[in-house]
Amino acid sequence: MKYKKIAYFRFFGRLNDFFKDEKFVKVHNFTGFQTVKDRIEALGVPHVEVSFITKNGKPVSFYYMVEDGDFFFVYPEFKNINLPEEWLVTPKYKGEPRFILDIHLGKLAKLLRMLGFYAFFGEEKDEILCRKAVQENAILLSRDIGLLKRKELVFGYYVRSTDPREQLKEVIERYDLKDWMKPFTRCIECNVEFEEIPKESVKGRVPSKVFELFNEFVRCPNCGRIYWKGTHYEHMTDFLKNVIK
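Below the sequence we write its predicted structure tokens.
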């Protein structure tokens, strides 16, 4: 008969979104030799959501072997707290954010593209999504907790809301996207950055009234769609003003 052990976990901030109960401390029973990463995920929190862990006030890595009676504090990333990098179990994401989204977040992907961000979606296989996220140093966004627990994944975020507008607000807040936004520079269908084209090149390819009223045009080099700052642009601008405050 295997000897049962007990470990205690206190989660902070948004990590508590993964629990329905409001217990201050999570009591976890286990047997054998287990890493703290395995125990945290067994409780329901994907490792990509965890920034640092302490035991008795001292930082530990994901690979610390849990002992009977251990008490852990588990933290998400905090924007206003700078910690030594060696404390972090998940590194901070650096540079312009790039996103990989699972197939169920297509509307969110298009909204991110509208803001100018690389946002790939459409693949159904979990292993391909994770591999792509790792290879491209991108953040995987999903509402599938199991997907975010895949061991190879470095950067990921569990999207809490089911409403695309609220999802966009979440991701903007989580990754401080305001400083990186380049609205209306990427095709929302192809995920490719626009290229500027001279006005004369669109003659006969856009309505004559549009040609008369507008002087600036861009084109998606992939699908060939031509865009200008008409009423659709105004509607999207109003949408962004309401979402991004």
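The radius of gyration is 22 Å.
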